[in-house]
């Protein structure tokens, strides 16, 4: 397993200027070759940006981001390694099928998802899991330095992988060579993964339960960001829902933080954004007047009632006036007779 991890990590590394950065990859190995189906493929990502690939059709390592010409010779060397790794992985595929007591007359796909997270303080976190047809088999345990079975059927597989020392090889590579290659590739991908200042859009919505303020922060890079609502310049308003940082197609990120508020006369609200691209936290005041929805609804209801009463009273008075006029005309006619 360490061999294909080496391949993917050598394709490139994220720029670590501030915050945490993640390098992740997906490896798929099919037990049977079918026309139009890739029997072996690797797709690599840096902070959710797809940046490298290799597959059994092209049999070449390709950089998916703009890279200097000096990468050509390096990619040639990585292609040779990838081709050898592909052969090794196909052999391992057959061994895994045997260890799981599967028959070889059915097509299976072994999928590996792995990630290396490099933090600003230089510490490294790693993650790796292996699945068969989408069902998890084993998970890498960094502290115990071994693969742990996710199901009872995968016990023998985990034992075999640990006996071959794959877990230790992976740990050593991720915690050592990972940062070394990062230093090597950093100058070349700096412009592609440079910091991007967040943009902000504030809005509000009204409901019977009250007013909700929304702070949408988007277009920022790297991923780490802190977004919060502040009342009267000092009191933080906590959101009832945990906001998620989501990736954009261009490699940037977005997040929306919403809070419910009870409008008070003279109260001010502002969204505070803290990001590594900013020298100081960005403070965006919510300038639109927040109306008390309950009072608004009551005033509307009272207005409607008053309107109906006025209309009804007018109609009643008009009918009475017509009736009175008719009575006077009737009395006048009788007197003339």
UniProtKB/TrEMBL annotation:
Record-linked InterPro entries: Ig-like_dom, Ig-like_dom_sf, Ig-like_fold, Ig_C1-set, MHC_class-I_related, MHC_I-like_Ag-recog, MHC_I-like_Ag-recog_sf, MHC_I/II-like_Ag-recog
Q: What is this protein called?
A: Major histocompatibility complex, class I-related -like
Pfam annotation, one family: MHC_I
Output a single Gene Ontology CC term carried by this record.
plasma membrane
Report the superkingdom from the record: Eukaryota
Q: Describe the location of the Ig-like domain by residue ranges.
A: 198-283
* Record has Calcium as a keyword: no
Location in the cell: Cell membrane
Q: Which residues cross the membrane?
A: 295-317
The family database entries (SUPFAM superfamilies) matched by this protein are listed as: Immunoglobulin (SSF48726), MHC antigen-recognition domain (SSF54452)
Secretion signal, residue range per the UniProt entry: 1-18
Keywords carried by this UniProt record: Cell membrane, Disulfide bond, Glycoprotein, Membrane, Signal, Transmembrane, Transmembrane helix
